[in-house]
Structures are given as C-alpha cells and as structure tokens.
Amino acid sequence: MLVSSSIREIEKIICKDLGRGIQSAAGHLTAGSLEAAVRSIAEHEAPSIAIITGFFIASGDPPAAETDGPPGAAHMAAAFVAAGIPCRIVTDTPCEGALRASMSAIGIEATVPLDVVALKEAQNNLTIGQTEALWYEQKISHVISIERCGPSKSGKPKSARGINLSDWTAPLEKLFTAGDWKQIAIGDGGNEIGMGALPADLIAESVVKGEEISCAISCDHLILAGVSNWGGWAMVSALALVLPNKSAALLSKLNVETDNQVLKELVDNGPSIDGIKGVQAYSVDNFDQSVHNKLLNEVLSLVV
After folding, report:
1. 228-263 confidence digits (pLDDT tens)
2. What pLDDT sits at residue 287?
3. Under a CB-based contact definition with an 8 Å cutoff, are residues 102 and 265 in contact?
4. Peptide bond before 151: cis, by omega within 30 degrees of 0?
5. Rounded CA separation 60/195 (Å)
C-alpha cells in the first residue's frame, strides 16, 4: 500500500496543469496508469523496451526537435539498461541529432541502439518495416512513446497551432501499434501518440484547437504530465519503488545535475529548441530549468 500511495503522489506531482487544460480535465481519468504501466514491466518475465520520441518544430529558429521528449527518453533508457532491461530508442531523421546528443550526455550511446527511421525511402536510414523487424528480433515486450506527435482524426499529425507536420514527421505510430507489445504513452498536450485513450470531446473542450489536433492513437497505459519529460522521470521513479532490489541502478542517473547536463548538450549540439519559445534556450515548454529541477527533486523525495 505504501508503494502504491507513493506512486500516486508522483502521479499527482507530474500531472500539473501549466495552462494547457488537459491535465485538469483528464487527470482523474489517468489516475493509476503510472503504477499499472511500471508493474506491467516489473512483472514481465523478460521485459525488453522500445522508446519512441522526437517532436520536430519546422518553424523554429533554427528548425529543430524540441527539448521535451529526448531527455525523458534518455533518462528512461539509461535506467532500464542499468537495471539489466534491454532497451532501444527510435526517432526519425529530423530528430536524430537531438537523440544522439541526449544519449551521449547521459552516457548510453554505446549501450542503447538508436533506430533512425527515414522520412523518405530514398534516404539512407531504416524504414518502418526494417525497424519493426529489429523489434521482433529483440523480442520487444513494451513500447513507450514520449512526446511524439501522432495522427489526428484527419490522419495528419498536427502541431498545437494546427499546422500539418507530415513533411517532418515519420509515421512512427505504425511501430507503436504494430505488435502485441504493451503500449505506454506519455504526453502533455493532446496531440501526442496515446492521447486517443482520452475522450475526443474532452480534448476538444479543454485544449485550444483540441478537436483539430487531438491524436487518434490510443494505448494501454497513458501517463499524463504537465511536461512530458516529467513522465519519463515518473516512470523511472515508480519502477524503482516497485523493484526495490534494482532501485539504486534505476535511479543512478536520475538527478538534477545529469538532467541539466543532458539539456545543455541537447540544446548546444542537437541542436534543439524550446518548443514554445521556438528558439534555442536552456528551457523546456517555456519553463526555466530551475522549475524542472524543483519538480524532479519533489519526485525523487518520494523514492530516495
């Protein structure tokens, strides 16, 4: 019971409404999803995880992947491999630099495969089919999507402003739904893979342009967060509570210092931009890193 109550507190901490509206409107619907998600991993006889992320902002200066998503993915991947759980990350060509920078900063570039899916077949990168084959070869049991734009009801991925992102977004949702792996999704705005688990009319009513942008792809477990990176921290922390014998390994790189290092490397060398500001900045979703540091420490206070 103590473990469950602590996980529920973590869920409450990360599900802060920062002005989007979806957290206040739907937080009660996703209560319990965090614990269900981590227990599905902990109780699997041989968990093997694939993480999907990368949200490219073509209108940014410079055009680049946003700072929300890759850090959360890197933290999860680092924790999984430290605990002996095989893991790989998948993104597409526009977001490749952001993932390589994040993975390098946290020290997993040599231990976690990065699958880069081409926007066009002519590009010298993996196709959806080739990536799916790799996943079956590794016997993926769980796929986690974090801050990855998915198709709206029109079939097109849409930004928060309603812009069609098809030209810069490979259909990685096809991997998310391709196998019989458990589907876990982390999102914060309504247009991310997995948000189809929520009633479409609720997103339409609570999010600006919600009816137009809401993602139609559902999932088994939806982690709703104020910022998607927070959901990545929550997954690691909750799993550490459920697997106390692996807690030290899981939490070994989940700290403020490492997160700051990942963000700096991501912005400088990804390059990457704040998705709301639209420029290179050491911030995520328009919030200074001090805000994220404070929240990470709140989460960690429940597990260490």
Report:
1. 999 999 999 999 999 999 999 999 999 999 999 999
2. 97
3. yes
4. no
5. 24
Instruction: Pull the structure tokens for residue 84.
Output: 């002996």
- Locate 286 and state its tokens: 């328009």
2-300 carries CATH number 3.90.1640.20:
yes
How many CB atoms sit inside 10 A of residue 134's CB?
A: 17
Chain centre distance of CA 230: 9
For residues 51 and 89, the answer to whether their CB atoms sit within 8 Å is yes
Closest Cα partner for 75 from 57, 49, 55, 93? 49
Entry pTM: 0.97
Taking every pair of Cα atoms in the chain, the longest distance, rounded to a whole number of angstroms, is 53
Distances (CA, A) of 36 to 94, 122, 205, 221: 33, 41, 27, 7
In the chain, what are the domain boundaries?
Answer: 2-300
Ramachandran class of 84: left when φ > 0, alpha when ψ lies in -120 to 50, beta otherwise: left
Residue stretches of the chain with pLDDT short of 50: none
Q: What is the pLDDT of residues 141-173, one digit of tens each?
A: 999 999 999 999 999 999 999 999 999 999 999
